[in-house]
TrEMBL record:
The chain crosses the membrane at residues 18-38, 50-71, 91-117, 129-151, 178-199, 211-230. It comes from Lasiosphaeria ovina. GO terms for cellular component: membrane. This is Fe2OG dioxygenase domain-containing protein. Residues 513-522 have a biased composition (Pro residues). It is found in: Membrane. It comes from the Eukaryota. Residues 523-533 have a biased composition (Low complexity). Keywords: Membrane, Transmembrane, Transmembrane helix. Residues 314-348, 492-543 are annotated as: Disordered. Belongs to the SAT4 family.
Length: 637
């Protein structure tokens, strides 16, 4: 020993202080992890790759902390002169395990964050980057652990003196560590940056976005710990006699980094539990979209007394089976819709027509003639075709996905100014559309009757009409529509590039339906669930209320509640329409359909119109198949 007698430092240990920092923080990480997994398992299991990855990280860190405690109990943290040979050997072996396994905790923690970001990132380039990061993390983990394990022959020489052993040169081991640290820092920087970019583009309330950002920012603490680790490692002398004690600060920062990665990865998932807690304890509203009074946002209505528009309880697409069962009593024709209310105008503003009982609002002159001309020019600058017979579509924001009737996760086209400028003026401001389909309907083109997918899009749907007027046909959904939902293929395809199958629902010829709408009350027969076969169902569906509503050029239609969930809408493919008793030839008509996508656990629907809810239909099909013993793979949730 080089240091003798009085020169020896006192026989104390920094080990307990090391544990005093690491153990409580690790306990916090475990609690966060438990809450995360708990919230992902209830009401029904929704574990994703990110959850499995973080579980690997937590198991690895549990082992690392366990071996750290074992090492401290054998004297890790004491000066070398007060440790026996056996203790030194144990400490060396235990901390060796921690170095090898600790890498798993940090790597799988980062991979878990990457999996989470992959789910919410719409941009393919960022997705690619995330996959590259996952690849690098795995490669670095494997390479680092292999180097650690083969560095010394025999392996024991890595932590205790062994005669005639051979180890890699110290410089090579440092190079290995620096490569790993660089990859880690790069990944952490991306993880810190990317969520900010994504979250602030989501159509969520500012409060919600701020909460998610703060929670995600916790991950930045791990970056800080990584920087400290590098700092102390730089000053570390591996050949110093008392190097086990000198190692402790670097050891502590390395474990802190691992634990903070786990904390950072779990924290954003706590949004829902925190939201629920704030709601229960302090009565704060849930982060749910709320519908604003048209008066307060729309200049056209600023001087009139518009009835406040809210989603009634039986119109809201809410979560919870109990509530949805309760709503199953809803039948076409039994709501408070009657000719008394429908078609009347409860306000004096001639620009706004509304049918509150079915949640339908039509705002006339929503855009100016100059805006209309600019929109038409913008559409044809991108697609000059006007002579065809088929509907043409252009997609902005998340593209409409004609295979799922939802929105693409990956295809996103930034909004042109003419669409972006509409957003602040939309009546429902609490959530804004992020899926836009601009369509051109040449004379004779239409769109089959359909209910926009319940599970994939939020309640409010918009259709902005321009170019010319067209009657939109509404019909209460009946058993026949429910039957159609069960067919494997439905199609709204229409553009030349996306051929539209012929639809029996699109007869040509003049309309004999007047506008504005006057749906007749349903006959008692239609209020019963039909018991007979297809023909009987179709016959009964014929009796359901239907009407056509003329959508004038420059008007904005807002569908919510029953008109959104419980009615089909469509445009008959005709060359002429009867408007006010006059036969009017159709002209080219344009529309912008605006929808808000549901993502992740928001997908799915237990709303008041289960008969035509696509999510419910899939669940039913899966249940039937399960009961019949047929393996069924389809479940969107
Ligand atoms: O063109 C319209 O106004 C409506 C289009 C529509 O219903 C749809 O794309 O789902
Ligand atoms: Fe639609």
């Amino acid at each position: 020993m080089g240091t003798k007698g009085n020169d020896l430092p006192p026989n104390d240990s920094v080990g307990p202080r090391l544990l005093a920092v690491l153990v409580p923080l690790f306990a916090v990480a475990l609690v966060l992890y438990a809450i995360r997994i708990w919230s992902r398992l209830r009401p029904k299991p929704r574990l994703t790759a990110a959850d499995y990855m973080i579980t690997v990280a937590v198991v690895a860190e549990t082992i690392a902390i366990g071996f750290t405690i074992a090492a401290v109990s054998r004297g890790y943290g004491r000066h070398v002169w007060y440790i026996s040979k056996d203790e030194a050997s144990d400490i060396g072996a235990f901390t060796f395990v921690v170095f090898v396994i600790g890498l798993w905790a940090s790597c799988f923690g980062r991979i878990s964050v990457a999996c989470l970001l992959l789910r919410i990132t719409p941009w393919p380039r960022w997705k690619m980057l995330l996959w590259v990061i996952i690849g690098f993390q795995l490669a670095a983990l494997i390479a680092c652990d292999i180097v650690e394990l083969i560095a010394c022959r025999p392996i024991r020489a890595a932590w205790e003196p062994v005669p005639d052993s051979e180890c890699f040169p110290v410089e090579d081991m440092w190079a290995n560590a620096y490569v790993f640290i660089s990859i880690a820092m790069f990944s952490d920087a991306i993880f810190a940056l990317l969520p900010m970019v994504i979250i602030w583009r989501l159509n969520r309330s500012v409060v919600e976005r701020t909460l998610i950002t703060i929670l995600l920012a916790l991950g930045l603490l791990a970056v800080g710990a990584g920087i400290f680790k590098i700092k102390v490692l730089k000053g570390y002398n591996i050949t110093a006699e008392d190097n086990a004690v000198d190692q402790i600060p670097g050891y502590m920062w390395a474990r802190l980094e691992e634990i903070l990665i786990i904390v950072g990865a779990c924290a954003p998932l706590l949004k829902s539990p925190i939201e629920g807690f704030l709601h229960r304890k302090f009565g704060l509203p849930l982060f749910r979209p709320v519908v604003r009074d048209l008066n307060s946002v729309h200049s056209l209505s600023s001087t009139v007394n518009v009835r406040r528009m809210k989603f009634g309880k039986n119109q809201e697409c809410s979560h919870g089976t109990e509530q949805s069962r309760e709503h199953e009593t809803w039948r076409p024709g039994t709501s408070s819709i009657s000719t008394e209310h429908v078609g009347s105008r409860p306000m004096t503003d001639p620009n706004i027509e509304r049918w509150d009982d079915i949640g339908l609002v039509l705002i006339h002159d929503f855009i100016s003639a100059a805006d209309e001309a600019a929109m038409i020019a913008a559409f044809h600058a991108a697609d000059p075709r006007t002579g065809g017979r088929k509907r043409l579509s252009q997609h902005f924001g998340y593209h409409f996905d004609y295979t799922t009737f939802g929105a693409s996760d990956t295809r996103f086209t930034p909004l042109p100014p003419y669409i972006a400028n509409l957003l602040p003026r939309l009546p429902v401001q609490e959530y804004l559309p992020d899926q836009f389909t601009v369509q051109y309907y040449p004379p004779g083109a239409g769109i089959p009757p359909h209910v926009d997918t319940h599970s994939m899009f939020s309640e409010a749907l918009y259709s902005l009409s321009f170019g010319s007027a067209v009657p939109m046909a509404f019909k209460k959904s009946g058993a026949n529509d429910a039957r159609k939902m069960r067919l494997p293929k439905r199609s709204l395809l229409a553009s030349d590039s996306e051929p539209q199958p012929p639809s029996a629902d699109e007869p040509s010829g003049p309309s004999d339906q007047p506008a504005p709408p006057h749906p007749s009350p349903a006959s008692p027969a239609s209020q019963q669930q039909p018991a007979g076969g297809t023909e009987q169902r179709e016959a009964e569906d014929e009796e359901l209320p239907s009407w056509e509503l003329l959508l004038p050029a420059r008007s904005l239609l807002l569908m919510t509640g029953a008109s959104r969930y419980g009615y089909t809408h469509g445009i008959k493919g005709r060359k002429t329409d009867v408007v006010g008793g006059q036969t009017v030839p159709r002209e080219g008509r344009y529309s912008i359909t605006m929808r808000t996508t549901r993502r992740g656990s928001d997908i799915g629907c237990t709303c008041s119109f289960p008969g035509v809810c696509d999510a419910r239909v899939r669940e039913e099909q899966a249940a039937v198949a399960r009961d019949a013993g047929i393996p069924w793979a389809c479940s969107r949730r």
